[in-house]
Specification:
Number of strands: 0
Order of helices and strands: HHHH
Number of helices: 4
Helix content: over 70%
Distance between the termini: 21 Å
Strand content: under 5%
Structural class: mainly alpha
Shape: elongated
Radius of gyration: 15 Å
Number of domains: 1
């Protein structure tokens, strides 16, 4: 990930979580798209563990659909790709 992408992912993660927090404080029940957006934003910022927490929280309240499953899969895959990429960067050939 480039510095610009990392900065964008970090901002997106913070912005989305801030909006999600505001949603919860206002006693508005988040829908599947709200959860999926948070899961995706966390995944883009390499916070796959938080993505899993949100996915499990969503499953306690809502029925998972194709969008939420896709979001959690992508969040975890992105992190694996980053780990593999960093491994090959550190390995001297």
């Amino acid at each position: 990930m480039s510095d610009q992408e990392t900065t964008w992912a970090g901002w997106q993660w913070q912005g989305v979580l801030s909006l999600f927090s505001d949603l919860l404080v206002s006693n508005t029940r988040p829908d599947g798209m709200s959860f999926a957006t948070c899961i995706t934003a966390n995944g883009n910022a390499s916070f796959w563990e938080r993505s899993l927490e949100l996915f499990h929280e969503m499953q306690r309240k809502l029925r998972a659909d194709v969008v939420s499953f896709s979001s959690i899969i992508n969040a975890c895959v992105l992190d694996v790709e980053n780990i593999v990429y960093k491994f090959f960067l550190l390995k001297k050939f």
